[in-house]
Amino acid sequence: MDADFLKEEVRGGFLVDAKRKRLWAAMLDMVEVFLDICEKHHLRYFAVGGTLLGAVRHRGFIPWDDDVDLAMPRKDYERFLEVAPAMLPEHLALTNKRNEPDNPHLYFSRIRNRNTTHITKFAQECRINHGVFIDIFPEDGLPTGKKGRRFLDHLVLLRRLDRKYRASWKDCPTWRSKMLLLPFRCLRLFAGPDFFYFRQEQWIRKYDFDHSDLAFHFWHTISSQAIHDKHCFDEYILLDFEHLKLRCPAGYDKYLKEKYGDYMQYPPVEERKGFHESVVVDCDRPYTDYWPVRKS
Q1: How far is CA 4 from the centre of its chain?
Q2: What's the pTM value of the predicted model, to 2 decimals?
Q3: Could you give the angle at the alpha carbon of 186 between the alpha carbons of 184 and 187, nearest 5°?
Q4: At what angle do helices 195-204 and 145-166 cross, to 10 degrees?
Q5: Segment 86-113, tens digit of pLDDT
């Protein structure tokens, strides 16, 4: 990487300071490792979300962005989870709900740099690796029409049941609400804390990505932005992303219009901020120097 990359600069009218550049550099290091693993094992991946938008509109990071979004068809994603741990350098770790019970990011994985710190408000109390990260999402299939709506309705039900299942007594202000929670608390004693989580994961995998007309990613919530035309991903093109080239869906125009509307237009100034509410970002010290975060 060119040493000048770490220098402060103005991009698109937004000041990218040296601290953000250090964060970007740490993420790009992980992306390079990810790309190498995918190439050696012939695994498919795509830039999605803000990373795809950045590649198309900025040929790199969106100036105010603070993460990297990569997606893989489910079969490739599961294979990546198998082979990656043995191929990652010592300073990197693959993290998800399967190897970190307290991980709040239920349905996707992250590569994290254990020698750095990026603690977000959402996860600051969780006993997990809090290093700088990149996101890796599985893409599943989704049927069209009534079949697809029934699938999503069932997933919404499982999601609601999971929230009830994870609720605590302090979340129930009345005796009536406590009584409604009682069956879930009893089931949890016998089935463990992730009973409905595993059922959601099984359900999400029901339809194969390659044999569906719609692609679906269930990252946190169910929304129209989580569903898109799978055929946007039938082919890929390589686009510049900083000093790298990333696989991007050939149908990126349709995908980005559905997700962002007029995606070439910059958002209002007040909306130009990263998605994550960061509590601590430090690319020079490990998260173990900071966690648990002391509250003032």
Answers
A1: 29
A2: 0.90
A3: 65
A4: 160
A5: 999 999 999 999 899 888 887 899 999 9
Per DSSP bridges, beta strands 117-120 and 109-113 are unpaired
10 Å CB burial of residue 5 (0-12, 13-18, 19+) is middle
- Residue 294 DSSP code: P
Lowest mean pLDDT among 104-118, 120-134, 225-239, 270-284: 270-284
Residues 220-237: pLDDT tens digits? 556 656 889 999 999 999
Distance CA 124, CA 127 (A): 8
Whole-number CA gyration radius for the chain: 20
Is 259 exposed, middle or buried (CB count within 10 Å of its CB: 0-12, 13-18, 19+)? middle
Q: What are the b/e assignments for 142-171, b being 16+ CB within 10 Å? A: bbeeeebeebbeebeebbeebeebeeeeee
pLDDT at 178 over 80: no
- The CA distances from residue 112 to 74, 94, 243, 256, in Å, are 21, 6, 20, 27
Strand residues in the chain grouped as ranges (E): 9-11, 14-16, 46-47, 69-73, 92-95, 109-113, 117-120, 132-142, 214-216, 227-229, 236-241, 244-249, 278-282
Bond into 286 cis (ω within 30): no
